[in-house]
Each structure stands twice: as structure tokens, then as C-alpha cells.
Design goal:
With 307 residues, the chain is mainly β. It has helices at residues 111-120, 187-192, 196-201, 256-262, and strands spanning 2-5, 10-14, 18-23, 28-34, 37-38, 60-61, 89-95, 98-103, 124-132, 136-145, 155-161, 164-166, 174-176, 182-186, 205-206, 211-212, 218-223, 229-232, 238-245, 249-254, 275-289, 294-303. It has one domain (2-303): Beta-galactosidase, Chain A, domain 5, CATH 2.70.98.10. Bound molecules: 6-O-phosphono-beta-D-glucopyranose. Residues 53, 79-80, 162, 187, 219, 251, 253, 279 line the site of 6-O-phosphono-beta-D-glucopyranose.
Length: 307
Amino acid sequence: MAIDQTDDGKVILSNSTSAVTILLHGATILSWTHKGQELLWLSENAILDGSKAVRGGIPLVFPVFGPAPKGSEFDGLPQHGFARLSEWEFLGQTEENTIQFGLGPENIVDEKLKAAADGWSKDFTIILTVELADDYLKTGVTVENTEKGESAKPWRFNWLFHSYFRVQDVEAIQVRGLQGSKLVEDKVALAAAEDRVATAAKYPFEATDETITIHSEVDRVYGSADEAISVITKEGKPLVSIEKENLSDVVVWNPWTEKAEGLKDFTPKAGFKQMVCIELGHVAEFQTLQPGEKWNASQKIFHNLKL
Ligand code: BG6
């Protein structure tokens, strides 16, 4: 296993067949290749200089998923929180095929972000563990409430691995493993609904689709998804299968034509045909941590390419 650090803030972990590239900005996984074949989708004009979240790869969502709820303790934080906008620290190698990255309040240096994060103002440590093998990429996280003393308080958060997978043709794939989970929210259906209140009141309900196919904009949150999730190709083979620990929810997102058009950092505009976001996390509800408590979760993505 080799570890390389580049001058432009990347860490590359590789073995004889596979490589994973992590940008310190956001500890965003930019690329995962096996025998030169890329498994993740990254926008051609993704912004990698730290001024914006990366469009593609695997950005990390913490402490809030989506827009911060008005009037909540997250109010003022940017969409999907600050973890994907912060400079993480490279902590080094912990096992032969494993490296770690860390984030704490002291790593948030950007003035605007710091002001927003100060509003949230909790003491925390996050450790991201990236493990690479010939047949899988595992990302694990430990979130710790490090508040101490008399003023120490519990706090709550969301976590999400916002993975963008590269596919040949998004209309030809199927997503499996969500049958029996709860459809917590369908943002596209909600936006189109004549009566939003009545539509919102229907959630959550049991998802009955054995497979999900994508032929238009999709933005759904599934909760209590127990099964491993897989993306199946046109030929009926799994492209990736994802095993998960302690990640109860799955977001399926594809912006399709209009939304991709509106995203400045989404290139090529027709790129939505070559990507699907399958995002595993804890977002349907907040997870609460008492002072001194830790929360662990992970996803292990297996590819189906020749070893
Ligand atoms: C998904 C959300 O997780 O992320 C979508 O469900 C959102 O609603 C998408 O549009 C992309 O978000 P962003 O902030 O990276 O543009």
C-alpha cells in the first residue's frame, strides 16, 4: 500500500490494482479506481480550491442534512452543514490499508463558515477512516461529543456519505435494497404537489418498489433501510453493492436536465445521465450524543470489476 500527499491538498492511497484520492478540503473522496476504471462521478468543473463543496465524489454531510431548519440550532449553517466545506487534517496510516482524517472546531478557519459554525457552537471530533482493498472501498466515521465540564450538553446531528456513482447510462440501471424501507420524503413529488400539506402528511409510508429506476429528476429520502443497497447494470450485474453499519437511511438523487442546468459546477450538463447519488446516512431523524459519547457508522462499497 502506498500513500502520497500532493502539494494541492490531496492524499492518495493505492495498492497494485486500486487507488483512492481524498481532498483535504471536506475530506472529500474525489476518485476511486480499480485497474484504471473510475467508479465515482466528478463534475469536470468541480471546485477543488476550498471555496465551495465538491460537486461529485463522496462529500460528507454534517451536522445537518439539507437546508438548516429555521429556528433550530442549525439555523445559519450552509446546506448540508460545514464538514464538506472545512479543511480536514490528515492523521496518517492506522493499518496497512487504512488512513484517517480528523475534523474539530479548530479546523474551521474560513471566517464566514466559522461565524456560522460558532452559532451552532458544539465541541466535537470527527474521525473519518478510509480503507482500500482490491474489491472494496470502506469509509467509516466516528463522531464524538467532546463537551466537558458543567456546561457540557448533549447535541444532535445528521451524517451522510453523499456518494456520486459513475454509471454508463442512468436510465439503464436499477437501485435495489429499498423495498420495505420507509419513504420519508419525495422532494420532487412535494414540489409538484397541488396540495403540499396533504402530500407531506402522507410521509413516511412503506416503500414497495423492489427496484428503483431513474427516468426523470429523483430526490427521495428512504428511512430504516435494512438491506444492503446495490446498483444493477443493464446486463443484470451489480455495479456496486454497499454494506452498511449503523446508517439507517438512504437518499437517492439525480438532478436531471433542469436542476443540472442550474448548478454552475455541474459539467458536462448532460453528465446527469452518467451519475446517480446513493447517499447512506442518518438523516431521517437526528442522532443525539451525550457528552463523552461516540457514534460509529460505516459503508463498504464493493465493485464488481475483474480483480
Ligand atoms: C441531496 C439532496 O442529498 O443533495 C438534494 O437530497 C440536493 O435536495 C443534493 O439538491 C445536492 O445538494 P448540493 O448542496 O450539493 O447542491
